[in-house]
């Protein structure tokens, strides 16, 4: 199965639609929150099923509010925005332990706006980053995931902005964008 994974699009799906259009043989889309209507719009525009979870900007206040599971031939994958599960504090050990307790082989999460593809004690942790509001100096990122009965391949992909310039913003914008107050 081939899956495109997005997170933290915050109301802007133009880049995600562009990526879906250019990527061949996509079986499923996953949106890891902030903002759930983006996932619905992606599904409507592309005709590809989009599984999504709520994020902090969607009003999810408990882990259970931002949790879903994806059953693949590789095994069960826990989908979460991550803000209630340790992502905001980069507590990846906790996330791996929770993943194992949920009988999952991997966790896909968002919230940090920074891409991550790592493994802790046999548990895959993957964050596609953000296409529209990256916090890593890139022009945005997403993930391509391929599953088979014996394999889970996750690749972080970076958006090619073709020379576009990004607004850096100021002090107030930094406070708003990088705050974990929600």
Mean model confidence by pLDDT: 88
Overall radius of gyration: 15 Å
- The percentage helix is 10-25%
Strand order of the largest sheet: 3-2-1-9-10
Q: Largest sheet, described in full?
A: 5 strands, mixed
Count of alpha/pi helices: 4
Our measurement of the CA-to-CA distance between the termini, rounded to an integer number of angstroms, reads 34 Å
Given the C-alpha coordinates, what overall shape results?
A: globular
Taking pLDDT < 50 over at least 5 consecutive residues as the criterion, the unreliable ranges are: 163-171
Q: Would you tell me the structural class of the helices and strands? A: alpha/beta
* Run of helices and strands: EHEHEEEHEEEEEH
| Total beta strand runs | 10
Strand content: 25-35%
How would you briefly describe this protein structure?
The protein is an alpha/beta fold and 182 residues long.
Report on this structure.
A 5-stranded mixed β-sheet has the order 3-2-1-9-10, covered by helices on one side. β2, α2 (36-46) and β3 form a beta-alpha-beta unit. Helix content is 20%, strand content 28%. It has helices spanning 14-22, 36-46, 92-101, 171-177; strands spanning 2-6, 28-31, 50-52, 67-71, 76-80, 106-108, 116-120, 123-127, 141-148, 151-158. The chain is of the alpha/beta class and 182 residues long. It is built from 4 helices and 10 strands. It is globular, with a radius of gyration of 15 Å.
Summarize the topology.
Layout: E1 2-6, H1 14-22, E2 28-31, H2 36-46, E3 50-52, E4 67-71, E5 76-80, H3 92-101, E6 106-108, E7 116-120, E8 123-127, E9 141-148, E10 151-158, H4 171-177
Parallel strand pairs: 1-2, 2-3, 5-6, 6-8
Antiparallel strand pairs: 1-9, 4-5, 7-8, 9-10
């Amino acid at each position: 199965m081939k899956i495109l994974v997005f997170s933290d699009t915050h109301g802007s799906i133009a880049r995600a639609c562009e990526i879906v259009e250019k990527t061949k043989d996509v079986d499923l889309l996953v949106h890891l929150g902030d903002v759930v209507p983006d996932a619905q719009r992606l599904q409507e525009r592309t005709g590809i099923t989009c599984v999504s979870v709520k994020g902090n900007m969607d009003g999810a206040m408990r882990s259970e509010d931002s949790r879903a599971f994806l059953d693949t031939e590789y095994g069960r994958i826990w989908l979460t925005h991550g803000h209630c599960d340790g992502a905001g504090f980069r507590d990846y050990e906790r996330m791996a332990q929770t993943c194992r307790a949920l009988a999952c082989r991997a966790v896909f999460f968002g919230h940090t706006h920074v891409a991550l593809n790592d493994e802790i004690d046999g548990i895959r942790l993957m964050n596609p980053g953000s296409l529209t509001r990256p916090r890593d100096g890139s022009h945005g990122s997403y993930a391509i995931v391929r599953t088979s009965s014996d394999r889970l391949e996750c690749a972080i992909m970076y958006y090619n902005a073709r020379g576009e310039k990004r607004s850096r913003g100021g002090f107030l914008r930094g406070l708003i964008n990088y705050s974990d107050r929600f």
